Amino acid sequence: MKEFWQVLKRYASPYKKYLAGAVFLNIFSAVFNIFSFTLIIPILQMLFGLDTTVYEFIPWDSSADFKEKILNNIYYYVTLMIDGYGPSLTLLLLGLFLGVMTALKTSCYFGSSAIMIPLRTGIVRDIRTQVYNKVISLPMGFFSQAKKGDIIARMSGDVGEIENSITSSLDMLIKNPILITFYFATLIFTSWELTLFTIAVVPIMAWGMSAIGKKLKRQSLEAAGKWSETLSQLDETLGGLRIIKAFIAEDKMKARFEKTSNEYRDAVNKVAIRQASAHPVSEFLGTMMIMLVLWFGGTLILKENSPIDAPSFIFYMVILYSVLNPLKEFAKAGYNIPRGLASMERVDKIMKAENNIKEIACPERLDAFEDKIEFNGVCFTYEDGKQVLTDINMTIPKGKTIALVGQSGSGKSTLVDLLPRYRDVSSGSIKIDGKDIRDCRIRDVRSLIGNVNQEAILFNDTIFNNIAFGVENATMEQVIAAAKVANAHDFIMEKEEGYDTNIGDRGAKLSGGQRQRISIARAILKNPAILILDEATSALDTESEKIVQEALDRLMNSRTTIAIAHRLSTIRNADMICVLHEGRIVERGKHEELIALNGYYKKLNDMQAL
Hints:
A six-stranded mixed β-sheet has the order 6-7-8-3-9-10, with helices on both faces. It is built from 22 helices and ten strands. The protein has helices at residues 2-11, 16-38, 40-48, 66-85, 87-137, 140-145, 148-190, 192-213, 216-239, 241-246, 250-276, 278-302, 310-351, 412-418, 442-447, 463-467, 476-485, 489-494, 512-526, 542-556, 591-597, 600-609, and strands spanning 372-381, 387-397, 401-406, 427-432, 435-436, 449-453, 530-534, 560-564, 576-581, 584-589. The two termini are 70 Å apart.
């Protein structure tokens, strides 16, 4: 339960007023409930003529026992009513009063549940929003290790489980202690002997329920892990559907998914069976408790000087039975909460993931790019210890185009990821205008940089919103101007809805060349001082490449450009070409100079010429 209260402390603080309101209404609900049950005693006595005592009013300020005064004076007023209105009308009036008390009780009960709904939904919204914000803020390195499907499972399934298990239990954990406190106080007031006996029996019931909830958290963690695997499989299938069909691998993927689904089903079965056993066990233990109290109470009544009469004993049993329900709900919360805590543990792996891309306390401003970019002794090593870049030294003057070439895995993409601080150098430094980018505001550094990647990253939105993405208050005129420079305006206007056309998931309604031109238009509208081109034309056909290359040439004009290229023909005119091999710059110079060296670049060029 300690973990549960820590979760509440983290997320329930903004909703204290709802908690206070729920406590207030639950207290009134308990009081009205007890008062309604209290009327059972005089009603039973009237119906069966069990009480022939003549009652005299005891002044409230007398020294008589408080319990005796309360009971005596209630019976006194009932006898006055019987004398004045007759037994039948008195019974009707008592029944009506019982109805009023019940209406007040149920109103308070409904109010206490209704007031908790904004708290429950608010906590879940806050958790989901915080997880999303955390995912947005995490460095790119985190996502090279985490599965997309697993992150989605934690944001959907696990947060949903927190709502179903923890926040739904919150209502029970506020209401039930209040009801149990008031009911037990009433039981002690009615017969302390019977209550002592009852208290001796309750721990047996609590032990039985705790045994059920013991392994639930571990089993719930296992089930959540299997659900993440299932979603990851689905995500991989949707992303690789073209390859699956091309390689006729449908049966293989079906078998993989079926295996994962069966494992998830088995894990869920264990949790569900343990959960399902809770109700019958609590029902059995509750019945055994009632039976023992009936036996003990009956034994007391059968004695000559019984401390409790038959109507009071029936009232006692009614209250005791009312105690059972909140005790069962407590037990239900006891096996619901471990499931929610298991999900919270999984969500916290994202929430508590370390973001090693940190901004210093008082960062320098970097409002413009005026001079040069410097890579000084840059090294980069992954968390697993694999070194990707070693002693990179490079200077990029403003307005120049630098091309990075080399085999796959030579570190080209990692090198350009270091400039906008998607990752941080392991050693060495990167400077813009003499300022180490780690000493500058991350927002300032990234605002100077525009990206056009090999895979055009677009969003399920309109063409206008994709081009204007990240540029506040962009006008239609500005978007059209950017699209024209990117050779995109003509094909956009051929669409029925023009710039308001929705392009589908990841731009699925557009061709590869069209998607790339939209992403170039987006970079043009941002108007960055530094441009990073990551193999921007390598996935295109010859005709599309020509159109896109024209757009890129316009975009690169008068900008500082770092271009990664596999097709050497696209970077022949670069001011400097750096050849990377196994994380080191092995050659550098212009195209003709590198050909003359007759080294690694010449080898790449000859292979492409063939």
